[in-house]
Write a structure and sequence with these properties.
single chain, alpha+beta, seven-stranded antiparallel beta sheet, four-stranded antiparallel beta sheet, 11 strands, 22% helix
Length: 184
């Protein structure tokens, strides 16, 4: 699987409270193995009381909390950070130093099903999409328990940009990425 690779951008979510006000800003980064599968999730949460234990795992498990979560761009995250009394949102290197909550994800060699000669990646998501037709490969799996996007990548091709684009598109579609797996 190789070493750890860095993700180019952080992911941001704003947890809303009644009246449409920000209650928390969640900052996270998937830690990817050398083959671009998810090895872990590093995260932190900012509230009006400062940095606090992360809500990242809870927004993936708790449907009621997830209903209050909105995808945020960096400018949207900066606005929420200011509204919560944080001032200017630090740069990404400084924010990465705040990602103290780390959840290792199960990693294993790619599952070889013999279905294809080219590897394909599956991104699993929690939640319900705003538009189930937003991505041509978005589908429900596990008897409706989760959503996924499968992406086939020719051998020798860097899958990173395609995986990032699919994750971002589905985050804008109200889904929360859970993990990235690789199959053959």
């Amino acid at each position: 699987m190789g070493g750890i690779v860095k993700v180019a951008d952080l992911d941001y979510y704003v947890v809303m409270e009644g009246g449409g006000r920000a209650a928390a800003l969640v900052v996270e980064e998937f830690v990817l193995a050398g083959d671009h599968t998810a090895a872990g999730l590093a995260s932190a949460t900012w509230t009006a009381n400062g940095w606090s234990p992360s809500l990242s795992l809870r927004i993936r498990k708790d449907g009621n909390l997830r209903e209050r979560v909105a995808y945020a761009t960096r400018p949207g995250a900066a606005a929420a950070f200011r509204a919560l009394g944080g001032g200017e949102l630090p740069g990404e290197p400084d924010l990465r130093r705040q990602l103290r909550d780390y959840e290792p994800l199960n990693t294993a060699p790619p599952l070889r099903l013999g279905l294809t000669d080219s590897p394909y990646y599956r991104i699993l998501f929690a939640g319900e999409p705003a538009d189930p037709a937003a991505h041509p490969n978005l589908r429900q799996i596990g008897n409706g328990v989760a959503w996924c996007v499968d992406i086939t990548v020719p051998e020798g091709t860097n899958p990173g940009p395609d995986l990032r684009a699919a994750r971002d598109a589905m985050r804008r579609n109200r889904l929360i990425p859970v993990t990235i797996e690789r199959f053959y």
